[in-house]
């Protein structure tokens, strides 16, 4: 049997637990090394090989919303026609963060919502008023962006335009992880998406 599955909802931990359930019999499992188009192409090469053990293969792409549009597009044919005896599993907080062509090619499993991180209403208000110029380290910048992603996910329930905000924040997170200039990345983010647009 070959199938492509997309797990959405819950939080990151909940999605990871669902993967473990799906792969309870511990098949030969492959994961991409990163979220670039080259990483996905390498994954595709691997899933067309015979499994090192077991009767079938599993290709797991956690947090697929971090893939670039080009990387997502490169997956389409593989998702539509997985190799024989292969299960492909993607996860994402919501289907809105993926290309519609990705979603349409997968069996979607929706888990009950759960926050990625916990922030009180007061913390959210304080976060929206944060002056990024006071952020000095890469760790602080990543923490700041992660919290903004949480806020945008929260606001997505009320306002579907938050989807584009989340994509921009994910892009900023990717840049920060790639050791780009912290100040320039945050400045670019504020130019793209003024804080008053949140909430």
Topology:
Blueprint: E1 3-10, H1 12-22, E2 28-30, H2 37-47, E3 57-61, H3 69-80, E4 86-92, H4 100-104, E5 107-113, H5 121-128, H6 138-156, H7 162-177, H8 182-192
Parallel strand pairs: 1-4, 1-5, 2-3, 3-4
Helix pairs in contact: 2-3, 6-7, 7-8
Give the beta-strand count: 5
In the residues, how many domains can be counted? 2
Overall mean pLDDT score?
Answer: 83
Order of helices and strands: EHEHEHEHEHHHH
CATH class of the largest domain: Alpha Beta
Catalogue the unreliable spans.
194-199
Q: Which strand order do you get reading across the main beta sheet? A: 2-3-4-1-5
CATH homologous superfamily designation of the largest domain: P-loop containing nucleotide triphosphate hydrolases
Please name the CATH architecture of the largest domain.
3-Layer(aba) Sandwich
How far is the first residue's CA from the last residue's CA?
45 Å
Strand content: 15-25%
Tally of helical segments: 8
Q: What is the general shape?
A: elongated
Structural class by SSE content = alpha/beta
Q: Which fold name corresponds to the CATH topology of the largest domain?
A: Rossmann fold
* Percentage of residues assigned to helices: 40-55%
Which value, in Å, is the CA radius of gyration? 18 Å
What composes the largest sheet? 5 strands, parallel
Question: What are its keywords?
Answer:
199 residues, alpha/beta, Rossmann fold, 2 domains, 5-stranded parallel sheet, 8 helices, 5 strands, elongated, disordered C terminus
What is this entry, summarized?
The chain has 199 residues and is an alpha/beta fold. The protein contains 8 helices and 5 strands.
């Amino acid at each position: 049997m070959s199938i492509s599955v997309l797990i959405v909802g819950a939080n990151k931990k909940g999605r990871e637990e669902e993967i473990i359930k799906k792969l309870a019999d511990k098949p030969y499992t492959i994961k991409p090394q990163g979220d670039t188009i080259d990483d996905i192409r390498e994954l595709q090469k691997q899933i067309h090989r015979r499994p090192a053990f077991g009767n079938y293969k599993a290709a797991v792409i956690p947090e697929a919303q971090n893939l670039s549009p080009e990387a997502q597009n490169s997956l389409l044919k593989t998702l539509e026609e997985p190799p024989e005896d292969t299960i492909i599993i993607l996860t994402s907080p919501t289907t809105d963060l993926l290309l519609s062509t990705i979603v349409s090619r997968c069996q979607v499993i929706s888990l009950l919502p759960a926050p990625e991180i916990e922030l009180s209403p007061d913390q959210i208000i304080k976060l929206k008023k944060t002056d990024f110029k006071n952020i000095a380290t890469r760790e602080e910048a990543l923490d700041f962006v992660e919290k903004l992603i949480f806020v945008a996910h929260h606001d997505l329930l009320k306002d579907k335009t938050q989807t584009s905000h989340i994509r921009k924040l994910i892009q900023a997170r990717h840049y920060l992880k790639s050791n780009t200039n912290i100040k320039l990345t945050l400045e670019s983010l504020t130019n793209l998406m003024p804080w008053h647009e949140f909430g």
